[in-house]
Amino acid sequence: MYIEPRARGSLLNVPPEILLRLLSFLDLPDLFSITKVSHYLRTLASDPILHTERLRIIAPSRVNHSLFRRGPKGELLRPTVEDLVRQGVMKYLGLRGWREGVYLGSTVFVKQYGLYVYLQRRSASRAIMSVQLGVLPPPNHQKRSRSRRQRETSEGTQAGGGKMPGPYPDVEFFSPAISRRLLPAIRELKWCLRRDQLAKTTRLAVGSGVDVDSHLSKWMEGTGYGIVEDGERVRLAVCPGVGRIVRFYEGLGTGTQ
Protein backbone atom coordinates (compact mmCIF):
# COMPACT_ATOMS: atom_id res chain seq x y z
CA MET A 1 0.00 0.00 0.00
CA TYR A 2 1.40 3.32 -1.09
CA ILE A 3 1.25 6.19 1.40
CA GLU A 4 1.68 9.74 0.25
CA PRO A 5 4.45 11.77 1.82
CA ARG A 6 1.90 14.18 3.30
CA ALA A 7 -0.01 11.29 4.83
CA ARG A 8 3.15 9.91 6.39
CA GLY A 9 3.68 13.07 8.40
CA SER A 10 0.05 13.45 9.35
CA LEU A 11 0.75 12.27 12.92
CA LEU A 12 3.15 15.13 13.38
CA ASN A 13 0.42 17.54 12.35
CA VAL A 14 -1.72 16.53 15.32
CA PRO A 15 -1.81 19.18 18.08
CA PRO A 16 0.69 18.47 20.88
CA GLU A 17 -2.07 18.40 23.53
CA ILE A 18 -3.69 15.41 21.83
CA LEU A 19 -0.34 13.68 21.38
CA LEU A 20 0.47 14.16 25.06
CA ARG A 21 -2.89 12.68 25.98
CA LEU A 22 -2.20 9.65 23.81
CA LEU A 23 1.33 9.26 25.14
CA SER A 24 0.08 9.34 28.74
CA PHE A 25 -1.40 5.85 28.29
CA LEU A 26 1.93 4.33 27.27
CA ASP A 27 4.43 2.69 29.60
CA LEU A 28 8.02 3.81 29.99
CA PRO A 29 9.47 1.22 27.56
CA ASP A 30 7.04 2.38 24.87
CA LEU A 31 7.91 6.02 25.49
CA PHE A 32 11.58 5.16 25.25
CA SER A 33 10.98 3.54 21.85
CA ILE A 34 9.10 6.61 20.62
CA THR A 35 12.01 8.87 21.49
CA LYS A 36 14.04 7.14 18.76
CA VAL A 37 11.53 7.98 16.00
CA SER A 38 11.96 11.72 15.70
CA HIS A 39 13.18 14.72 17.60
CA TYR A 40 9.66 16.11 17.93
CA LEU A 41 8.32 12.95 19.55
CA ARG A 42 11.41 12.78 21.77
CA THR A 43 10.58 16.25 23.08
CA LEU A 44 6.96 15.26 23.78
CA ALA A 45 7.92 11.97 25.45
CA SER A 46 10.24 13.77 27.87
CA ASP A 47 7.73 16.48 28.74
CA PRO A 48 7.48 16.93 32.55
CA ILE A 49 3.74 17.58 32.43
CA LEU A 50 3.23 14.22 30.74
CA HIS A 51 5.09 12.32 33.46
CA THR A 52 3.37 14.28 36.23
CA GLU A 53 -0.01 13.26 34.83
CA ARG A 54 1.15 9.67 34.53
CA LEU A 55 2.20 9.58 38.20
CA ARG A 56 -0.85 11.35 39.63
CA ILE A 57 -3.73 10.18 37.43
CA ILE A 58 -2.93 7.40 34.99
CA ALA A 59 -0.88 5.12 37.27
CA PRO A 60 -3.35 5.19 40.25
CA SER A 61 -6.27 4.52 37.93
CA ARG A 62 -4.45 1.53 36.48
CA VAL A 63 -3.68 0.16 39.92
CA ASN A 64 -7.28 0.69 40.98
CA HIS A 65 -8.50 -1.09 37.86
CA SER A 66 -6.11 -4.01 38.40
CA LEU A 67 -7.02 -4.46 42.06
CA PHE A 68 -10.76 -3.94 41.99
CA ARG A 69 -11.91 -4.87 38.50
CA ARG A 70 -14.75 -7.35 38.26
CA GLY A 71 -15.84 -9.89 35.74
CA PRO A 72 -19.13 -10.09 33.83
CA LYS A 73 -20.83 -11.73 36.82
CA GLY A 74 -19.48 -9.23 39.35
CA GLU A 75 -16.70 -11.41 40.77
CA LEU A 76 -13.32 -9.92 41.58
CA LEU A 77 -10.70 -10.68 38.95
CA ARG A 78 -7.86 -10.07 41.39
CA PRO A 79 -6.40 -13.38 42.63
CA THR A 80 -6.94 -14.18 46.28
CA VAL A 81 -4.29 -15.38 48.69
CA GLU A 82 -5.45 -18.94 48.18
CA ASP A 83 -5.05 -18.57 44.43
CA LEU A 84 -1.53 -17.19 44.87
CA VAL A 85 -0.61 -20.14 47.09
CA ARG A 86 -2.05 -22.58 44.58
CA GLN A 87 -0.15 -20.90 41.72
CA GLY A 88 3.12 -21.01 43.66
CA VAL A 89 3.50 -17.23 43.87
CA MET A 90 3.31 -17.23 47.68
CA LYS A 91 5.34 -19.97 49.34
CA TYR A 92 7.48 -20.88 52.36
CA LEU A 93 7.09 -18.20 55.05
CA GLY A 94 4.27 -16.50 53.20
CA LEU A 95 2.39 -19.79 52.99
CA ARG A 96 2.82 -20.43 56.70
CA GLY A 97 1.62 -16.92 57.47
CA TRP A 98 -1.43 -17.45 55.29
CA ARG A 99 -2.22 -20.71 57.08
CA GLU A 100 -1.84 -19.04 60.50
CA GLY A 101 -3.97 -16.10 59.44
CA VAL A 102 -1.26 -13.46 59.92
CA TYR A 103 -0.69 -12.50 56.30
CA LEU A 104 -0.79 -8.84 55.31
CA GLY A 105 -4.39 -7.63 55.33
CA SER A 106 -5.78 -10.41 57.52
CA THR A 107 -7.85 -9.73 60.62
CA VAL A 108 -5.11 -10.95 62.97
CA PHE A 109 -2.49 -8.77 61.30
CA VAL A 110 -4.72 -5.70 61.47
CA LYS A 111 -5.36 -6.29 65.19
CA GLN A 112 -1.64 -6.73 65.87
CA TYR A 113 -0.79 -3.54 64.04
CA GLY A 114 -3.49 -1.61 65.90
CA LEU A 115 -2.18 -2.92 69.23
CA TYR A 116 1.35 -1.90 68.27
CA VAL A 117 0.24 1.65 67.42
CA TYR A 118 -1.72 1.86 70.68
CA LEU A 119 1.23 0.76 72.82
CA GLN A 120 3.58 3.13 71.02
CA ARG A 121 1.27 6.10 71.57
CA ARG A 122 0.72 5.22 75.23
CA SER A 123 4.46 4.96 75.83
CA ALA A 124 5.07 8.31 74.14
CA SER A 125 2.28 10.00 76.12
CA ARG A 126 3.63 8.66 79.42
CA ALA A 127 7.12 9.92 78.58
CA ILE A 128 5.77 13.39 77.72
CA MET A 129 3.73 13.56 80.93
CA SER A 130 6.73 12.48 82.99
CA VAL A 131 8.88 15.20 81.42
CA GLN A 132 6.22 17.83 82.07
CA LEU A 133 5.82 16.75 85.70
CA GLY A 134 9.57 16.43 86.23
CA VAL A 135 9.42 12.82 87.38
CA LEU A 136 11.02 11.14 84.39
CA PRO A 137 12.17 7.65 85.45
CA PRO A 138 15.61 6.41 84.41
CA PRO A 139 15.76 4.37 81.19
CA ASN A 140 15.80 0.60 81.32
CA HIS A 141 19.45 0.31 80.35
CA GLN A 142 20.43 2.59 83.24
CA LYS A 143 18.41 0.43 85.61
CA ARG A 144 20.10 -2.71 84.32
CA SER A 145 23.58 -1.20 84.57
CA ARG A 146 22.87 0.05 88.09
CA SER A 147 21.60 -3.32 89.28
CA ARG A 148 24.56 -5.08 87.66
CA ARG A 149 26.99 -2.66 89.34
CA GLN A 150 25.36 -3.27 92.72
CA ARG A 151 25.51 -7.04 92.20
CA GLU A 152 29.20 -6.91 91.25
CA THR A 153 29.93 -4.72 94.27
CA SER A 154 28.26 -7.20 96.61
CA GLU A 155 30.13 -10.10 94.99
CA GLY A 156 33.45 -8.27 95.31
CA THR A 157 32.74 -7.47 98.95
CA GLN A 158 31.98 -11.10 99.69
CA ALA A 159 35.10 -12.27 97.83
CA GLY A 160 37.32 -9.80 99.66
CA GLY A 161 35.78 -10.38 103.07
CA GLY A 162 34.13 -6.93 103.11
CA LYS A 163 37.47 -5.15 103.50
CA MET A 164 39.53 -2.98 101.24
CA PRO A 165 43.16 -3.91 101.92
CA GLY A 166 45.95 -2.28 100.00
CA PRO A 167 49.32 -0.60 100.37
CA TYR A 168 47.82 2.72 99.27
CA PRO A 169 44.30 3.95 98.34
CA ASP A 170 42.66 1.37 96.05
CA VAL A 171 41.29 3.39 93.14
CA GLU A 172 40.00 0.30 91.34
CA PHE A 173 37.70 -0.50 94.26
CA PHE A 174 35.57 2.56 93.49
CA SER A 175 35.69 2.25 89.69
CA PRO A 176 32.44 0.92 88.14
CA ALA A 177 34.33 -0.02 84.96
CA ILE A 178 36.33 -2.81 86.68
CA SER A 179 34.70 -6.06 87.71
CA ARG A 180 34.87 -6.91 91.40
CA ARG A 181 36.08 -10.38 90.51
CA LEU A 182 39.34 -8.89 89.20
CA LEU A 183 40.12 -6.83 92.31
CA PRO A 184 42.21 -9.53 94.09
CA ALA A 185 44.38 -10.04 91.00
CA ILE A 186 44.80 -6.28 90.53
CA ARG A 187 45.83 -5.82 94.16
CA GLU A 188 48.37 -8.63 93.93
CA LEU A 189 49.82 -7.15 90.75
CA LYS A 190 50.15 -3.72 92.36
CA TRP A 191 51.92 -5.27 95.37
CA CYS A 192 54.40 -7.03 93.06
CA LEU A 193 55.10 -3.90 91.02
CA ARG A 194 55.66 -1.81 94.13
CA ARG A 195 57.93 -4.43 95.70
CA ASP A 196 60.01 -4.77 92.52
CA GLN A 197 60.38 -1.00 92.27
CA LEU A 198 61.64 -0.70 95.84
CA ALA A 199 64.03 -3.62 95.38
CA LYS A 200 65.45 -2.07 92.21
CA THR A 201 65.93 1.27 93.96
CA THR A 202 67.82 -0.39 96.83
CA ARG A 203 70.06 -2.42 94.51
CA LEU A 204 71.00 0.68 92.52
CA ALA A 205 71.81 2.57 95.69
CA VAL A 206 74.03 -0.22 97.06
CA GLY A 207 75.82 -0.83 93.76
CA SER A 208 76.56 2.82 93.08
CA GLY A 209 78.62 3.24 96.26
CA VAL A 210 76.46 5.99 97.75
CA ASP A 211 75.67 6.26 101.42
CA VAL A 212 72.90 3.69 101.85
CA ASP A 213 72.02 4.91 105.31
CA SER A 214 71.37 8.49 104.23
CA HIS A 215 69.58 7.33 101.07
CA LEU A 216 67.33 5.02 103.07
CA SER A 217 66.58 7.71 105.63
CA LYS A 218 65.57 10.14 102.88
CA TRP A 219 63.33 7.52 101.36
CA MET A 220 61.71 6.82 104.75
CA GLU A 221 61.05 10.53 105.24
CA GLY A 222 59.70 10.97 101.72
CA THR A 223 58.09 8.21 99.68
CA GLY A 224 58.17 5.55 102.39
CA TYR A 225 56.54 7.73 105.03
CA GLY A 226 53.02 6.49 104.31
CA ILE A 227 54.10 2.87 104.10
CA VAL A 228 55.83 2.94 107.48
CA GLU A 229 52.66 4.24 109.12
CA ASP A 230 50.61 1.36 107.71
CA GLY A 231 52.09 -1.11 110.17
CA GLU A 232 54.61 -3.92 110.30
CA ARG A 233 52.58 -6.20 108.02
CA VAL A 234 52.62 -3.67 105.19
CA ARG A 235 56.34 -3.00 105.58
CA LEU A 236 57.14 -6.69 105.43
CA ALA A 237 54.91 -7.17 102.39
CA VAL A 238 56.12 -4.18 100.39
CA CYS A 239 59.78 -3.74 101.27
CA PRO A 240 62.31 -6.09 99.63
CA GLY A 241 64.46 -8.52 101.56
CA VAL A 242 67.07 -6.73 103.72
CA GLY A 243 69.10 -9.78 104.77
CA ARG A 244 71.97 -8.87 102.45
CA ILE A 245 72.13 -5.31 103.79
CA VAL A 246 71.99 -6.55 107.40
CA ARG A 247 74.88 -8.95 106.81
CA PHE A 248 76.84 -6.12 105.17
CA TYR A 249 76.54 -3.88 108.22
CA GLU A 250 77.22 -6.74 110.63
CA GLY A 251 80.40 -7.48 108.72
CA LEU A 252 81.46 -3.85 109.09
CA GLY A 253 80.92 -4.04 112.83
CA THR A 254 82.97 -7.21 113.29
CA GLY A 255 85.70 -6.11 110.91
CA THR A 256 85.26 -8.99 108.51
CA GLN A 257 84.51 -6.70 105.56
From TrEMBL:
Residues 135-166 are annotated as: Disordered. Residues 8-58 form the F-box domain. PROSITE patterns: FBOX (PS50181). Signal peptide: none annotated. It comes from the Eukaryota. InterPro entries: F-box-like_dom_sf, F-box_dom. SUPFAM superfamilies: F-box domain (SSF81383). This is F-box domain-containing protein.
